[in-house]
Automatic annotation (TrEMBL):
Source species of the chain: Gossypium tomentosum (Hawaiian cotton)
Protein name: Dipeptidylpeptidase IV N-terminal domain-containing protein
Top-rank taxon, per record: Eukaryota
InterPro entries reported for this sequence: 6-blade_b-propeller_TolB-like, WD40
Pfam entry (one): PD40
């Protein structure tokens, strides 16, 4: 009865938070400790308390955004027969997936080349199975409302996987946890990670008796992502609460038999390496945990994401060698201490990721860019639908950055790249056609005039540079008749609105009456906000300062009714260049205030906010932005480069209530815009090979992985 009363009190507290549209973070409440009881957590039934608002109160429209690098991945899953590897002088690489969307992180199910894998063909990462004779992959049981699944494994008629659908008690904690379900029978999904614990990258022992996991535990996320501060944790599949830390500091475990685990970590000399821990056949009877690991791979090259062979003599690893640009799969002989190259002899100019090995040790798999001349999808759509957690809010990923809609919503401006290849592209909002403006000049951050259909404001110059670097605000005008011609490069007039000697001027946002721009400038020595005449610029005293101080104010967004300007700033902690939060101010400089997303004013959580790319909803009642509140969803070292892999999109009311997460994946998601103007019918988008640009597989390895060691 006492537990029932406690559950009732906690349920009442949660309903109060939900009804007030506040995030349900209970870390400071005395009842929070009761959540450690699995029985009480079930009694509370948090699933029924998810803050699902009536549809009339939900945000509506379409949010368009970018995911760093993802559009060019083109991943498919391949295998090689190890009886015919390059080691013996011949090989045949076999593609197992169908060139639709991106497919990755596979495991063999049996020796007939059946695999379970992740695919994003349904708009978010979900679990699929393919085998010989299947005309298309079969979607396996998963969490219907989850936007993220990862690292699936099938063992003894059970499916194990990572999902990120249950919001933790506190902000700045990943949502990732381990789940399982039977492949036959009721298919009930069971959480194996204790509530409040974050788990990544599962592995199942040969007999299916034990699970190894890279666990962050219940600690708040500390901002790490180059190497996550995870431990290798072991527990029996029959008793997931009986967890033991097998080794401190390690990720991506893989079993050899039931008593040996290999994993990766960054060694003290800076090289990512593979380590090994060994213990008796029943790890639970071993009392000397955590075990001191043994380094297996030598310094001088990076080794990641190991996959152990069941013969106990070899491991497959992804490597980055000194002076080389590409990640490749190699086999390391544990007895002879030598590497045998595999993929560099097959596809020397492609990256290869996350190897996996068949149980009979005869097949080696991995994922890579599928190549240009393949069947299936060979083009990147200009706009791609993405699963949304909110019924009436559509989500579109663009192939580019900094999207901005024309006043009637029929056109979209974007920047395809943020380097010397950058320019401004204009795309039809159905994704069917695309044109180029001001080719050959670096441009970023577009703002379409709300009152002039063929006027776009942008920043010309390098992005993320110092206050003194010359970056200028430009007014770009083009003739509509060119959109009906055969021209791909449209003539335009470029009018510079800021003086060259004023340094770094960027991130323009146009007022709803089309008369003014708010932008960020470093002309004072600090990056603050200014308001500028949208036609004549600053040359006739058409400029005034909006904010001032020894901090960074950036990425402003003018509200649709013109009464507020939202922006990101670290004015609350000027010495921390990562501590950005949301602020709003009136255009006359009055009523400056901070909007707290991670918790109430005065809480320690709000000091960890890193929020950028703030944008208003069409009705001015909501904000969409990129934030670090959800931590890291997957091991970043297993992905191509993501500058900020903790960056996900959120929506929140202007008063700080109603926080909802929109994206959940291993990518950096950002530069959102909210569709203004007329209706955009997502059912009429041009997808597949009918539109878009060529899929080239051009993306980077993590830039923070370096070989600059002695």
């Amino acid at each position: 009865m006492k537990m029932i009363r406690q559950a009732t009190n906690l349920r009442h507290l949660l309903r109060k938070h939900v009804n007030n549209r506040r995030p349900v973070y209970l870390s400071s409440h005395p009842l929070t400790s009761l959540l450690c009881s699995r029985r009480l957590f079930k009694a509370v039934n948090l699933d029924r308390l998810t803050p699902t608002m009536p549809s009339s109160m939900d945000p509506k429209g379409i949010v368009v955004f970018t995911s760093v690098g993802r559009s060019q991945y083109g991943f498919d899953i391949f295998t090689v027969n190890l009886n015919q590897t390059p080691i013996t002088g011949s090989t045949s690489e076999h593609r197992l997936t169908d060139c639709i969307s991106i497919n990755y992180n596979a495991q063999f199910v049996n020796e007939d080349q059946s695999i379970v894998f992740i695919s994003e063909r349904s708009g978010c990462p979900r679990i699929y199975l393919t085998r010989r004779g299947l005309s298309k992959p079969e979607q396996l049981p998963s969490v219907p409302d989850s936007l993220f699944h990862d690292r699936p494994i099938i063992k003894s008629h059970h499916l194990y996987f990572i999902s990120a659908h249950e919001q933790p008690e506190k902000p700045f904690q990943s949502w990732s946890a381990l789940y399982s379900t039977e492949l036959h029978g009721k298919r009930k999904i069971i959480r194996l990670s204790p509530y409040g614990v974050v788990d990544y990258s599962p592995a199942i022992s040969k007999s299916g008796t034990f699970v190894a996991i890279a666990s962050y535990g219940s600690r708040p996320w500390e901002g790490d992502f180059h190497e996550l501060k995870t431990d290798i944790v072991v527990f029996p599949t029959s008793d997931p609460n009986n967890r033991l830390v097998a080794c401190e500091r390690g990720g991506w475990p893989t079993w050899s038999g039931d008593s040996t685990i290999f994993f990766h970590r960054q060694a003290d000399d800076g090289w990512w390496s593979i380590f090994r821990v060994q213990f008796p056949e029943n790890p639970l009877e071993f009392s000397e945990f955590p075990v001191l690991p043994l380094r297996i791979t030598p310094p001088g090259l990076h080794c990641f994401t190991p996959a152990a062979f069941n013969d106990g003599k070899r491991i497959a690893v992804a490597t980055r060698r000194r002076g080389k640009c590409y990640r490749h799969i190699e086999i390391f002989d544990l007895e002879r201490k030598v590497f045998h190259p595999v993929t560099v002899l097959l596809n020397p100019a492609f990256h290869h990721y996350n190897p996996f090995v068949s149980s009979n040790s005869e097949s080696l798999g991995y994922h890579r860019f599928r190549g240009k001349s393949t069947e299936g999808e060979s083009r990147v759509p200009h706009l791609e639908p993405v699963a949304s957690p909110i019924k009436d809010l559509g989500m579109l990923r663009i192939n580019g950055s900094f999207p901005s809609f024309s006043p009637d919503g029929s056109l979209l401006a974007l920047n395809p790249a943020l380097d010397e290849n950058g320019d401004i592209k204009v795309v039809k909002s159905d994704g069917s056609e695309r044109w180029t403006l001001i080719k050959g000049r670096v441009a970023f951050c577009n703002s379409w005039s709300p009152t002039e259909k063929y006027v776009i404001y942008s920043s010309l110059g390098p992005i993320f540079e110092s206050t003194k670097t010359t970056v200028q605000i430009a007014r770009v005008t083009f003739e509509p008749s060119y959109l009906n011609s055969d021209l791909q490069e449209i003539p335009c007039d470029v009018k510079i609105l800021t003086r060259e000697d004023t340094g770094n001027n960027a991130f323009p946002s146009c007022s709803p009456d089309g008369k003014s721009l708010v932008f960020r400038s470093g002309r004072s020595g600090h990056k603050n906000l200014y308001i500028l005449d949208a036609v004549n610029g600053e040359f006739n005293d058409g400029i005034r300062k909006l904010t001032a101080g020894p901090w960074i104010d950036t990425m402003p967004s003018w509200s649709p009714n013109g009464d507020l300007i939202a922006f990101s700033s670290n004015m609350h902690n000027p010495n921390n260049v990562d501590a950005f939060s949301i602020y709003v101010i009136k255009p006359d400089g009055s009523d400056l205030r901070r909007i707290y997303a991670a918790g109430p004013k005065g809480s320690s959580d709000v000091d960890m906010e890193r929020i950028n790319h703030v944008c208003f909803s069409p009705n001015g009642e909501w904000l969409v932005f990129a934030a670090n509140i959800g931590g890291v969803t997957a091991e970043p070292v297993s992905f191509p480069n993501q500058f900020q892999p903790y960056g996900d999109l959120y929506v929140m009311r202007l008063d700080g209530s109603g926080l909802r997460r929109l994206t959940c994946d291993g990518y950096e998601n950002g530069t959102p815009t909210w569709h203004f103007g007329g209706e955009l019918d997502m059912r009429r988008l041009c997808l597949g090979n009918d539109a878009g640009v060529e899929l080239t597989g051009e993306f980077d390895e993590p830039l923070w992985i370096t070989s600059d060691f002695n």
